[in-house]
Amino acid sequence: MTPVSSKLYADDVSLLMVLIDTNPYFWSSTKNTAFTFSKFLSHVLSFLNSILLLNQMNQVVVIATGYNSCNYVFDSSTSSMQRAECLLEKLEDFVDKDESLSQENSVDGFGFSLLSGSLSMALCYIQRVFRSGPLHPQPRILCLHGSPDGPRQYVAVMNSIFSAQRSMVPIDSCVIGSQHSAFLQQASYITGGVYLKPQVSDGLFQYLSTVFATDLHSRGFLQLPRPVGVDFRASCFCHKNTIDMGYICSVCLSIFCKHHKKCSTCGSNFGEARKQEPSASDQRRKTPDLNR
User: 27-36 long-range CB contacts below 8 Å, 24 or more apart?
Assistant: First the structure.
């Protein structure tokens, strides 16, 4: 029989970082629908139990994403309580503390969640696992997000995405809101993760168990959803608006929707904006043919 020590970090052992959107302003908008926050948690708990049952060496870490803060609420490697009781109790404490914080501390406002903070916390935890030794489970991040994208978090979110790409950590995205998330589309596409927006909210557990429960090794043998129509537009650094065309600083690569005399990020001085001169082919088209 193969010793247990050689099975500790096999290809099918996963470290799953789950980011749960707890923004009360988002969930209050779903009260008119049948998919409430309590039903959402029941689907998530069933999914987490299935992950831990697939392999006894699997590890699950849950991070709550509020609109003022984010925090670890569950770690299967350290929790001695029942999973459901521990997770629900810490989630309730987190939501109360998040609402008690000053409203001025919110990054983008009440309608947005602190996605950049939860991604950073997940990557920090993964880096700690990497440095714990040469043997470690295969890490991946799953974002269960519903709030709209916070434009002021664009730079921080993109930095987290590129950090995950460099560490070869895929970011899976399951969008439970009414609209797609450009941030998570780019995150899943760049890091090689899976982006999915379930068509039926009541079937969330089926989506999670069939798409996101598979480990990274098994994904090579499955036909998972592929990204279609990824929104690669960036947000300008001056007004935080999504733009199609803009001005880019050649020093720090900051993006602006209008021409500025000076870069607000690195302080570089810009030259005058040049008007686009008509090309020679355009001039030929505009020149009348006198021989006709």
Answer: 27/146, 30/146, 33/201, 34/201, 34/202, 35/176, 35/201, 35/202, 35/204
Do 133 and 96 form a contact (C-beta atoms < 8 A)?
no
pLDDT digits (tens, 9 = 90+) for 144-188: 999 988 888 888 999 999 999 999 999 999 999 888 898 999 999
Task: Copy the structure tokens of residue 80.
Answer: 């001695």
Best CA proximity match to 68, nearest among 113, 25, 24: 113
Number of helices (H) and strands (E), helices first, in the chain?
Answer: 8, 10
Query: What distance in Å separates the CA atoms of residue 31 and residue 288, rounded to the nearest whole number?
Result: 66
Classify residue 244 by burial, with Cβ atoms within 10 Å: 0-12, 13-18, 19+: exposed
Q: Which of 63-67, 75-79, 215-219, 231-235 has the lowest mean pLDDT?
A: 231-235
Read off the pLDDT band of 9 (50, 70, 90): low
Highest-confidence segment of 30-39, 73-82, 168-177: 168-177
User: Bridge partners of 21?
Assistant: 65
Sign of CA pseudo-dihedral 144, 147, 149, 150? negative
Question: What are the pLDDT digits (tens) for 208-226?
Answer: 999 999 888 888 888 888 8
Tell me the CA distances in angstroms from 178 to 174, 175, 200, 211, one per residue in order: 12, 8, 11, 20
- As to burial, measured by CB atoms within 10 angstroms (0-12 exposed, 13-18 middle, 19+ buried), residue 254 is buried
pTM for this predicted structure:
0.80
- Could you tell me the strand order of the sheet in which 171-175 lies? 70-75, 59-65, 14-21, 138-145, 171-175, 195-196
